[in-house]
Specification:
Elements (H helix, E strand, L loop, with lengths): L5 H21 L19 H4 L18 E5 L8 E4 L5 E4 L3 E4 L5 H12 L9 E6 L4 E6 L5 E4 L6 H7 L12 E6 L5 E6 L1 H7 L13 E4 L3 H5 L6 H8 L1
Parallel strand pairs: 6-10
Antiparallel strand pairs: 1-2, 1-5, 3-4, 6-7, 8-9, 8-10
């Protein structure tokens, strides 16, 4: 009969239990993988997409409908011509036909014409002169003496523009003159100016200088808005008698 050592049997049982425990732990499912974050930049929101683009400083003039252009060919004078930009933004060129030019600056227009004429001339050289174009202007509306469109001749401020437009009317709200300025094709900035305070304090440090295309609007004051509904003194006299 074989004698079994109880100490050895106990050690073997403990060792086997520990082995099975480690084996069960290794079989436990691993934690789910973390989602991979894409490094691709998120698509811009609608507000960001609609945000106005900063305006360039001292932008070049862009030709527009009604402008008259003198095209001179120093080495091919037979192609010299004067053209007008049509209502659809095209000009008709001698020997080429119609091409669109509206919205181009003078350097861009010169480059486009030289490229177009390279089809029939060898290395054409063209100079472009603006013979007639829309003069810089501003618009004054609302409660001014003479609302309308005015040529912007030289450096002109808002107070000077109001004076050119006939000054304020009796119903004008001097403290809330609105200056509209186009920032881009889709955005217009609005600035509220307190000309009443400027003139009363004889301080024109905040008098804004106009840019071509600016529009001034002078609203009515509160009293003029309710004046039609205020009974006249004659009405009281009629009621008394």
């Amino acid at each position: 009969m074989i004698k079994r050592n109880p100490i050895r049997i106990g050690i073997a049982v403990i060792f086997a239990t520990a082995t099975f425990a480690f084996a069960d732990r290794d079989k436990e499912p691993s934690s789910p993988a973390q989602p991979v974050v894409s490094e691709k930049a998120p698509a811009p929101s609608q507000a960001e997409a609609d945000r106005p683009v900063l305006q360039k400083r001292k932008p070049r003039y862009q030709v527009r409908k009604g402008d008259i252009l003198d095209l001179n060919f120093p080495f091919s004078p037979e192609f010299n011509q004067t053209v007008a930009i049509q209502p659809d933004g095209y000009i008709t060129l001698r020997g080429l036909g119609d091409i669109p030019v509206e919205g181009l600056t003078k350097p861009e227009l010169t480059e486009k014409l030289e490229k177009a004429y390279s089809k029939i001339l060898r290395e054409p050289v063209i100079s472009v002169d603006l013979k007639d174009f829309e003069k810089p202007y501003f618009v004054a509306g609302g409660e001014v003496g003479k609302p309308g469109k005015y040529e912007l001749r030289g450096d002109t401020t808002v107070t000077q523009a109001v004076a050119l437009a006939g000054g304020f009317s009796a119903q004008a709200k001097h403290s809330q003159v609105l200056l509209f300025r186009r920032v881009s094709d889709d955005w217009v900035s609005v600035k509220k100016l307190n000309l009443k305070k400027m003139l009363a304090e004889a301080n024109l440090t905040e008098d804004v200088h106009l840019e071509p295309g600016d529009m001034l609007f002078v609203p009515k004051n509160a009293l003029s808005k309710i004046a039609p509904f205020i009974p006249k003194p004659a009405m009281y006299l009629n009621q008394l008698f």
